[in-house]
Amino acid sequence: MRTLRLLLEKEFRQIFRDKGLLPILFIMPMVQLLIMPLAANFDVKNINLAVVDRDHSTYTQQMVSKIASSGYFRITGYYTDYTPAMHQIEREKADIILEIPAHFETDLVRESKASVYLAADAINGTKAGLGSAYLNTILGDFNNEIRMKWLPTKAAAVGTIDITSSNWFNPEMNYHLYMVPGILVLLVTMVGGFIAALNIVKEKEIGTIEQINVTPIKKWQFIIGKMIPFWTIGMVDFTIGLLLARYVYGVIPVGSLLLLYSFLSIYLVALLGFGLLISTYSDNQLQAMFVAFFFIMIFMLMSGLFVSVDNMPPWAKMITKLTPVTHFIDVVRMIVLKGSHFSDIKMQFLYEIAFAVVLNGWAILNYRKTA
Amino acid sequence: MKQFMVFVRKEFYHVFRDRRTLLILFGLPVMQILLFGYALTTEIKNAEIIIVDHAGDMASQQLTTMIAASKYFDINARVVSDEDIYKAFKKGKVKCAVVFPSGFGNDLQHGQTAQIQIIADAADPNTAKTLTNYLTAIIGDYQQQISPTANVPMRIEPVTRMLYNPEMNGSMNFIPGVMALVLMIICTTLTSVSIVREKEMGTMEILLVSPFKPTYVVLAKAVPYLALSLIDLIIILLLSVFLLDMPIRGNIILLFLESTLFIICCLSLGLLISSVTRTQQIAMMVSMMGMMLPTILFTGFIFPLENMPVPLQVVSNAVPSRWFYVIIKAVMLKGLGIGVIWKETLVLAGMTTALLIISIKSFKTRLS
Amino acid sequence: MSEKAIVCKDLTKRFGDFFAVNHISFDVDQGEIFGFLGANGAGKTTAMRMLCGLSYPTSGEATVAGYNVFRQQEAIKRNIGYMSQKFSLYESLTVRENIRFYGGVYGLSDKQLKEKGDELITKLGLEKEAKMMVGSLPLGWKQKLAFSVAIIHQPRIVFLDEPTGGVDPVTRRQFWDLIYDAAANGITVFVTTHYMDEAEYCNRISIMVDGRIDALDSPANLKKQFDAASMNEVFYALARTAKRSAD
């Protein structure tokens, strides 16, 4: 016990004296937490629309002003010909072209039917899909309006369907509520897992680990002595981040903080096991960094933080399942936004415990061999 | 010139004898292009949905069948109470629910307004919005189907065309982004480490006391990486075309020239990093950890740049991959020529020149 | 002292086909200063690591401080001190904190730590520097400090792996005074070095060539045996026979 206390004393002293490390541990994550959510905004609004109006009638003008006032679209050009509108698409100035053919108004009145043409830049599928869906809805509304004006009596024998939609857990559709907790997890991961890995490899590189190995310090004491400080730092970082999220972004966890923190504490153990594993496989900090880089990239893009896991192919979903971060991001969002209970997330708990056991076990086995 | 080639050859040896570097140079891009190329997509497929059918009549069943038949939705369960929806949402698998109130079909048949409620799990607002839209579209279709068409006068019929990507391949947006990201990180990191390594090992001093001009030392460092990055580029393009089904619609030579420009730009950035840092570790920290996040965020392939606050949009202009992303989309996917992308090309060229000048300058001043 | 500090019989370490250490046998007496010489790559460090319990021998027998290197590595660790080529104190801890840490790890009580620490600091003349970060001390002082810390728990044996590399001659002389002090206190000193003048200070030395021990005796006897004027000549005579290239 005394040995462990001495080790902890040493680690904390070293960490708090490292003027280069402290900002990386405490300031950098918080700065990122403040900036990243501002940049990470998926919200499809401000769809740029180029209008090709070959009709120039009262209706087309009403239609365009209705679209413009919907709040979703920004009219970036109003043309009489298709070519300049297409140029707008090519230069990424416009996302969708709305083309109103000549005689639109006359067709509508005389033939009782008229077409409009939408052409969407579908490279960004989401934007194209949502944009044309919005546009369709607006056109439908507009259609109803003019129909009501011309034929005020309801002619339809069949009733209309009235759709009401409600958005649970996040009625204001606030994107920050979704992103901030996830980003916080990623930041804690980088600090907890990778700085810890680098820290252990550093002792290897300097040679102090050799000295430790000839002392009566047991392996487990050394490992625990390394883990506790970074575990604590992870907890502190998460707490600071949660406070920032609350006071800056208004993210107030709905669910139980106790549940959140118990998951966090297991997660950190799993993560530190991962860091330890990296350190046992690397001889110097450079190698450790390469490995860490590779995994951070996978963690970032495959954890469901930025790109939803649900849409991935089955084999990719398997990979995400084998990534500890995925489960924690999932759980943080569930607890913070939905107030999920233990019974809702027990699978994730199981996964994380399994990660903690396997990663640490593997690391300790491997550590024995190399030391 | 002969001396220069000697240096270049030495650098090639360095690279080819270091298995780890080779692995990073070729293994990493291949893995990441494949992994992210296949996995990353925003296209929603088979989202799990709950149907709460209080009506249980023909209309509600027909509509349910239509929802089930769409590729966007998988019906997870038919439950009876709101409480069940709440529980399912909390578990996190089900993303939305459709509620038919009792008498739904009845209302519809008797020409009244029939209510239908869509409840979305808006924890992820983006998915919620998309799913709501899809459902609205399906319900709209159903309404069209049951309304005798002749009865609806003054119909505006929107005809939609999806340009460049008619199959709505959801990863089309990501692959050029991942290409830009991978090239940028690889090129920057490797060059930045390579010069600092010589500094750290003390071999740089030896090079500098040789009669060789410092500028050439720097350039000789960059040449092998340029060659290797071009090989990388070819591999990445082959993978994208043959495995990921990406089209190359534009001029392939233009694509190559633009990519080369981008690679040189990243190499110059790497040179700059390495001439201002002291150790490999710091150089790595800066070029990997420091660059990765800005590159992911500011290239614009995940989050639309125009959604960002103005200061961040300004910052994004300084990220080379942001410009390359526009170029590669234009040339590869849209089949456009230099006439459309000359501005982006100029920006990249300008950045490259500036970076090169600054890095060679700072390299020189470091000597005195 | 009758009891041997190190007994080593046919100790071997093999990596694949390569015999890093090839059946070496020797004894070291308690309180002796034993020089362990050899060219780079001769297998000194590997042998030393086995004796310190850092790696398992492939075959052979050895006891260190009476404990078996196969089965009682932990007991060995409690009874030895070790100082490696690489500086092994924590640079971002102060002199006192390093003493406290390493001493504490060997089970010294707070009171002992205080006494020993004071004694050590006075002896090295580090009173003013006691609260300074070790990283800011000059190299010579660091090495002397590292040695003093390595024997703070009064081990039976201290292993020194090229302790004086890169240190100026005056400091080296002072360092050897510390070694003599330790030996006088009954601590066995097992030291590797490349400096032949240092080899002359040892009671006995062994010279390793290609994983074997080719010579083992007191410096005076070795010089006689090889008909050499200095240890340098002895060393050259033996090192020339090496087949392995130094790495």
Describe this structure in words.
Chain A: The chain crosses the membrane at residues 21-40, 175-201, 228-252, 258-278, 290-309, 349-367. Chain A: It is a multi-pass membrane protein. Chain A: It is found in: Cell membrane. Chain A: One of its GO terms (cellular component) is plasma membrane. Chain A: It holds the Pfam family ABC2_membrane_3. The complex is a heterotrimer of chains A (371), B (368) and C (247). With 371 residues, chain A is an alpha/beta fold. Chain A folds into two domains: 2-41 and 173-370, no CATH class; 47-150, abc type-2 transporter like domain (abc type-2 transporter like fold, 3-Layer(aba) Sandwich). Chain A is 67% helix and 10% strand. Chain A has a four-stranded mixed β-sheet with strand order 2-1-3-4, with helices on both faces. In chain A, helix 7 (175-206) packs antiparallel against helix 11 and helix 10 packs across helix 11 (285-302). Chain B is an alpha/beta fold and 368 residues long. Chain B has two domains: 2-40 and 169-367, no CATH class; 47-151, abc type-2 transporter like fold (3-Layer(aba) Sandwich), CATH 3.40.1710. Chain B has a four-stranded mixed β-sheet with strand order 2-1-3-4, with helices on both faces. In chain B, helix 3 links the parallel strand 1 (47-53) and strand 2. The radius of gyration of chain B is 28 Å and the shape is elongated. The mean pLDDT of chain B is 84. The radius of gyration of chain C is 18 Å and the shape is globular. The mean pLDDT of chain C is 88. Chain C has a single domain, classed as 3-Layer(aba) Sandwich (Rossmann fold), CATH 3.40.50. Chain C has helices at residues 44-51, 73-79, 95-105, 110-124, 139-150, 169-184, 196-201, 219-226, 231-239; strands at residues 4-15, 18-29, 33-38, 59-64, 67-68, 80-83, 157-161, 188-192, 204-209, 212-217. In chain C, the strands form two sheets. In chain C, strands 6-7-8-3-9-10 form a six-stranded mixed β-sheet, with helices on both faces. Chain C has a four-stranded antiparallel β-sheet with strand order 2-1-4-5, covered by helices on one side. With 247 residues, chain C is α/β, with parallel strands linked by helices.
